[in-house]
């Protein structure tokens, strides 16, 4: 992928993407990062990446293939306008920030700007994330492929045509890791209440969820089949599932949680 990449910011998600790109063999010299944090900038430079502190330090002749907005949504107003000079047929803008719509970027960059909005999640830090992306009408097939390749450096990629779906995506996969971590906490507490020593209960809960996730990842079976494989009729797991699968059980809780998060995402996106 011999393309010139410009990152606006390089926090946790941007850093995960850069690390994934380097691991995939993308030349560090073709990655430019605008990063005001001196420590982060030095770390990037040590990896052969071009790091500058402000957009003003970028070469006037620079025409990046992809500009990646990897800063927090709350500072986006201060960041985006400086990159409007790159808006044109040769550059696509890829945002991995939650809540900022395509219309928002078109408002700052111009309606002719090619914009892809993506929602990744935190397992990107270990190359096991999933991103859902949507493009505006100015994005060409090659530009969409370039953005897809960038996102693939941190995990799986899916595309949608309806930007409105990203609110539910944010609720499900964006926040999903937090729900899984909460499950580990709850399992550990339940084990403690059942009489297990605290350290052992925590260890069992953590290893069980991590191992089950890996089994799901490697298996061709769907989750329901894997669940049935663990559940002996009339056994202990079946008794637990009776509680979890009651009308007000886990499915009801998660449905309400995702609905609440989806509604909040819509509010934040205006």
Keywords:
single chain, 270 residues, alpha/beta, eight-stranded mixed beta sheet, 48% helix
What strand order characterises the main sheet? Answer: 3-2-1-4-5-6-7-8
Percent in helix: 40-55%
- Describe the global form: elongated
Cα-atom radius of gyration: 22 Å
Mean pLDDT across all residues, rounded? Answer: 95
> Structural class, judged by helices and strands?
alpha/beta
Number of helices: 11
Distance between the termini: 36 Å
Structure description:
This protein is α/β, with parallel strands linked by helices and 270 residues long. The protein is 48% helix and 14% strand. It contains 11 helices and 8 strands. An 8-stranded mixed sheet has the order 3-2-1-4-5-6-7-8, with helices on both faces. The chain is elongated, with a radius of gyration of 22 Å. The relative contact order is 0.10. The model has no long low-confidence stretch (mean pLDDT 95).
Question: Could you give a short description of this structure?
Answer:
The chain has helices at 12-23, 38-46, 76-79, 102-109, 141-152, 165-174, 176-193, 198-218, 223-230, 236-244, 250-268; strands at residues 5-8, 31-34, 50-52, 66-69, 92-95, 114-119, 129-135, 155-159. The protein has 270 residues and is α/β, with parallel strands linked by helices.
């Amino acid at each position: 992928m011999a393309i010139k990449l410009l990152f606006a910011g390089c926090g946790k998600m941007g850093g995960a993407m850069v690390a994934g790109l380097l691991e995939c063999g993308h030349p560090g010299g073709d990655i430019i990062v605008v990063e005001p944090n001196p420590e982060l900038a030095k770390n990037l430079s040590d990896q052969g990446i071009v790091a500058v502190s402000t957009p003003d330090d970028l070469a006037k002749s620079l025409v990046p293939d992809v500009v990646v907005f990897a800063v927090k949504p709350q500072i986006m107003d201060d960041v985006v306008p400086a990159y409007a000079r790159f808006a044109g047929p040769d550059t696509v803008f890829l945002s991995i920030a939650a809540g900022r719509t395509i219309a928002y970027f078109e408002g700052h960059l111009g309606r002719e700007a090619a914009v892809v909005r993506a929602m990744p999640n935190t397992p990107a830090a270990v190359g096991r994330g999933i991103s859902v992306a949507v493009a505006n009408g100015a994005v060409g097939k090659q530009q969409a492929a370039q953005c897809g390749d960038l996102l693939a450096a941190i995990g799986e990629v899916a595309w949608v045509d309806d930007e409105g779906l990203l609110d539910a995506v944010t609720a499900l996969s964006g926040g999903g890791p937090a729900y899984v971590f909460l499950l580990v906490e709850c399992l550990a507490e339940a084990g403690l209440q059942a009489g297990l020593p605290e350290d052992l209960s925590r260890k069992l809960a953590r290893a069980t969820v991590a191992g089950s996730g890996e089994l799901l990842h490697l298996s061709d079976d769907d989750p329901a089949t894997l669940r049935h494989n663990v559940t002996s009729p009339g056994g202990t797991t079946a008794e637990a599932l009776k509680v979890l699968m009651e009308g007000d059980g886990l499915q009801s809780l998660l449905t309400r949680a995702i609905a609440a998060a989806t509604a909040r995402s819509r509010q934040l996106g205006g």
